[in-house]
Design brief:
The complex is a heterodimer of chains A (385) and B (176). By secondary structure, chain A is α/β, with parallel strands linked by helices. Helices cover 36% and strands 19% of the residues of chain A. In chain A, α1 runs parallel beside α2 and α10 crosses α13. The relative contact order of chain A is 0.11. Chain B starts with a strand and ends with a helix. Classes of the chains: A alpha/beta (385), B alpha/beta (176). β10 of chain A pairs antiparallel with β2 of chain B, so a sheet runs across the interface.
Chain lengths: 385, 176
């Protein structure tokens, strides 16, 4: 078998999952553990070929639980690490998503979302996991989630995901759905030297945990990675800033839960990203992921008919773009929310928008089949009449 | 201009491969934009298979095919599934070995005996999809022949380029 090689810089016509794998390597990922699942399997397949060629490691584990645990371990050994799965795999990973959040572990988790619940339809995309990735593990915690709408963004978002994971020491999700995971489109791959990469801060060698603050710093503490000449202590139990277990001090408990949330929310302006294209008085279509394309196609058709219609497309789902949604709603005549599910983000959007203008929801006519622009346009016209 | 195409057949005929090559040719060698999706049943051979391609001079906003401008049908099943959504002035290109009579309402129907040509003139039934691509190229011109030839050469296994390119040329010559 010929050795795999990374795609050269330039324009390629490739499917989203392959673009994502290329993006992972470009981002500096050097460890992936995973277990195959439709519609994500092309990612471990491709990275199992590419990682060994760049000095990295690919591990096929016995299940998704072992996959995320292995990736957490690799991250603590200092590697940029990831796993990739679909919704059923994320369900299995939930306990350890909390482990990664509580131990402030940089980690990228890809969920190529498929039609559920349960086994559902493996090959049909549905944005069914957008809340479970944020709220599925027990306790209070905060993750970051990015939501690509094209193979190009699957490449670009992987670089951003690893950079955010390194910067904020937390799990970062990339949430394409199966539709764009398997869609082919043009993907422009830049030369490596044009890609900006972030690296985590690492605690100084030759020190002990008691001399440092390794955790619970809202500005993000340097990470005491294993095996580089320093002592380190890490536990999933409630711990203080030195990583020492403490189950008695309410101040420590409070900090243990709130500081890993605070370190992300305090920097939300560096994380939250939207694509806003609306004017005052527009009906603003709010959408994310694959159906953001339906939103923009509908807005284009509406404008061609002289109708005042704009879009607000969310590139990040968590932390939630509360300020951006509120700002749009303040100027909008009405908001129409499109989701490729039955309305999972709708309560969050309503909470920001409903005080300012009417908010309506439109799912696809057939769940799992993305909205046709004409159906969106029809609803927009109803809202205007 | 936005052009929507459906290439359909049954599993094993290479309909999806043809769709991928069409999109790659447009994007890589013809300076167009393309979005390509596909669906297939779980049987290895004999089940339904289709590729959808949207071609445009501008980035493709909506990536699905709603009503194709062009239907390439490699099996009777493809007619049953997709002829009804073909645009009124849409073009049908069909394998006349597999489809006896195209629906009467389709006025722009172009037969090509892809399966028998592949078997008898190429000694390789597997290249019937390249014959269909040649026919598509000749009839519609949606992607240039030069771009398709390069994309075919990129996509097929080493040593099989010449066979596939000859099949492509044969489709261009023999389409009705």
């Amino acid at each position: 078998m010929k050795a795999a090689v990374r795609l050269k810089p330039g324009t390629h016509f490739i499917e989203g999952n392959l673009a994502l794998a290329e993006g992972a390597i470009a981002a500096g990922c050097r460890f992936m553990a995973g277990y195959p699942i439709t519609p994500a399997s092309e990612i471990p397949n491709r990275l199992s070929q590419l990682l060994p060629t760049v000095g990295g490691v690919f591990l096929q584990t016995e299940d998704e639980i072992a996959a995320i645990c292995s990736a957490i371990g690799a991250s603590w050994a200092g590697l940029k690490a990831m796993t990739a799965t679909s919704g059923p795999g994320v369900s299995l990973m939930q306990e350890n998503i909390g482990l990664a959040a509580s131990t402030e572990t940089p980690l990228v988790i890809v969920d190529v979302m498929r039609f559920g619940p349960s086994t559902g339809v493996p090959s049909v995309g549905l944005a069914g996991d957008v809340v479970q990735v944020a709220r599925g593990s027990h306790g209070d915690y905060q993750i970051i989630a990015l939501c690509p709408e094209s193979p190009q963004e699957m490449y670009d978002h992987m670089i951003r995901a690893f950079n955010l994971a390194e910067r904020f020491r937390c799990p970062v999700f990339v949430l394409p759905d199966g539709f764009i995971g398997h869609m082919r489109e043009q993907v422009v791959i830049p030369p490596d030297q044009e890609i900006e990469l972030a690296q985590r801060k690492i605690a100084p060698a030759g020190t002990t945990p008691l001399e440092r603050q390794d955790f619970l710093d809202p500005e993000v503490a340097p990470m005491p990675v294993f095996g580089r000449g320093r002592q380190a202590h890490v536990t999933s139990s409630c711990h203080n800033g030195q990583g020492m277990r403490n189950l008695t001090d309410p101040e420590v408990m409070h900090a243990f839960a709130t500081m890993p949330i605070e370190k992300i929310l305090r920097h939300r302006d560096q994380i939250v990203e939207v694509a806003a294209d609306y004017a005052p008085g527009d009906v603003v279509i709010v959408a994310y992921g694959t159906v953001a394309r339906s939103a923009r196609a509908a807005a284009q058709a509406a404008r061609a008919q002289g109708l005042a219609v704009g879009t607000l497309c969310l590139k990040t789902l968590w932390p939630f773009a509360d300020q951006e949604v509120a700002a749009a709603a303040q100027q909008a005549r009405a908001v129409l929310v499109l989701e490729n599910n039955t309305g999972q983000m709708l309560p969050y959007i309503k909470a920001e928008a409903a005080a300012h203008c009417p908010v309506q929801f439109l799912g696809p006519r057939l769940l799992g089949q993305i909205h046709e622009p004409n159906a969106v346009l029809t609803r927009v016209k109803e809202m205007m009449s | 201009m936005r052009t929507e195409l459906t290439i359909a057949g049954v599993g094993g005929q290479g309909s999806i491969t043809a769709g991928v090559i069409l999109g790659a040719a447009a994007v890589t060698y013809d300076h167009q934009y393309a979005a390509q999706t596909s669906a297939y049943s779980s049987e290895l051979r004999g089940g339904f298979a289709a590729a959808w391609v949207v071609l445009s001079e501008e980035p493709v906003l909506y990536p699905r095919v709603i009503a194709p401008d062009v239907l390439v049908a490699q099996a009777q099943d493809s007619i049953e599934r997709f002829a009804k959504v073909l645009k009124p002035q849409g073009v049908l290109i069909y394998d006349s070995d597999m489809i006896a009579q195209p629906p009467a309402q389709i006025t722009r129907a172009h037969p090509v005996a892809a399966t028998s040509l592949a078997r008898n003139e190429m000694q390789a039934a597997i290249v019937a999809n390249m014959i269909m691509l040649g026919a598509l190229c000749q009839v519609t011109g949606v992607v240039s022949p030069g771009a398709l030839e390069k994309a075919i050469a990129d996509a097929v296994p080493q040593g099989k380029q010449e066979l596939n390119l000859r099949a492509f040329a044969l489709g261009r010559e023999r389409v009705g």
